[in-house]
Amino acid sequence: MSGLAIITEACIDTKDRACVDVCPVQCIYEFDPAQRQLYSEFEAGSGEIANTHGVTEAIDIFGDGLLYVNVDECTSCAACYQPDVCPVGAIYPEEAVPDGATITKYNADDPHKGHDHTFFVAHTRSVFAD
């Protein structure tokens, strides 16, 4: 299954960044509170900035505790939400983001099974200011 990547609550304060390394278009961003901007790196932790974006006040909900996907840049390649990439199962294709229903399929490693993750679909779109 492919689709736009959505990072959900399991990423909060984890930010493993393995997803950054597998992303072919550097569409996964981290928030820099000192600069009040989102940035993506060519390789996680390299300091080599690929892209930057301004932010809206929606960023203040999670701030730098979460990674963000720019869905306008995401190619739906599915690399970041493969089971062996995110160690906490925080990334889903947009059309498969769990809604809390008992029949909903969750990533095996997602510690928040049973939670409604659909908030993160709108939140992902609302943090980027262009």
Question: What does this 3D model show about the protein?
Answer:
This protein is 10% helix and 21% strand. It has 130 residues and is of the alpha+beta class. The protein has one domain: 2-Layer Sandwich (Alpha-Beta Plaits), CATH 3.30.70.20. The strands form two sheets. It has a five-stranded antiparallel β-sheet. It has a two-stranded antiparallel sheet with strand order 1-6. The termini are far apart. The relative contact order is 0.28. The model has no long low-confidence stretch (mean pLDDT 91).
What structural keywords apply?
130 residues, alpha+beta, Alpha-Beta Plaits, two-stranded antiparallel ribbon
What portion of residues belong to β-strands? 15-25%
Q: Report how far apart the termini are.
A: 29 Å
- When the domains are counted, the total is 1
Q: Given the structure, what is the number of helices? A: 2
CATH architecture: 2-Layer Sandwich
Decide which structural class fits the backbone: alpha+beta
Q: Level of helix content?
A: 10-25%
pLDDT < 50 runs, ≥5 residues: none
Number of strands: 7
Order of strands, main sheet, comes to 5-2-3-4-7
